[in-house]
Amino acid sequence: MEWGDILQELWRTAALYVLAFGVFRLMGKRSVSHLAPFDIAVVIIIGEAVAIGIEDVSKPVWNSIAAILALGVLQFGLTWLNTKWRTGEKVSQGIATMLVKDGKVLMDAMAKEHMSKSDLTIALREQGYEKMEDVKIARLEPTGQVSVLPVDNMKPVTFGDLGLSQGETLKTYLDRRLQELRGGT
After folding, report:
1. What is the sign, positive or negative, of the torsion defined by CA atoms of 131, 133, 138, 140?
2. For burial by CB atoms within 10 Å, which of 68, 90, 105, 161 has the most?
3. CATH number attached to the domain at 97-151
4. pLDDT digits 0-9 by tens, 23-65
5. CB 143 within 8 A of CB 36
6. pTM, two decimal places
7. 21-46 burial, b if ≥16 CB within 10 A, otherwise e?
């Protein structure tokens, strides 16, 4: 291998790296665990275009650059379309599936999503719910995450539940309540 070949390979690698990095940044800030299936497919295809551009020096690097730019434009366009047209989002991203309703596991939905009861139990435990009865609704989101709405008595206590006024700290609230219990003295 000659120095010219090495420099060409370095240039191709750097150019494709910078381009792929830019396209991924434009795709948004969702983490890998929150990517929808279509997003994952785009990431894989861009990765393949970069790999071909780096490895196959018999093909012009512009082929890979064009493919990466086209995928970036298509992904950006789809994202924009999804913000304007709910049906398009449902088609490209999918919709949430209810897995638990009022503490009861919906076995038909579980089968449709190819999810076992132990997978659901693990997902609920990771969010702090040991018993199915503590869950009012659990949904499998398009990203694969399970979101949970607990039954009312399992919801965390809020400052509003305690009667705290805006800007009041827990200490001032407790001092005020203690004063009230002592009869205002």
Report:
1. positive
2. 68
3. 3.30.240.20
4. 877 776 665 566 777 778 888 898 999 998 888 888 888 999 9
5. yes
6. 0.57
7. eebeeebeeeeeeebbebbeebbeeb
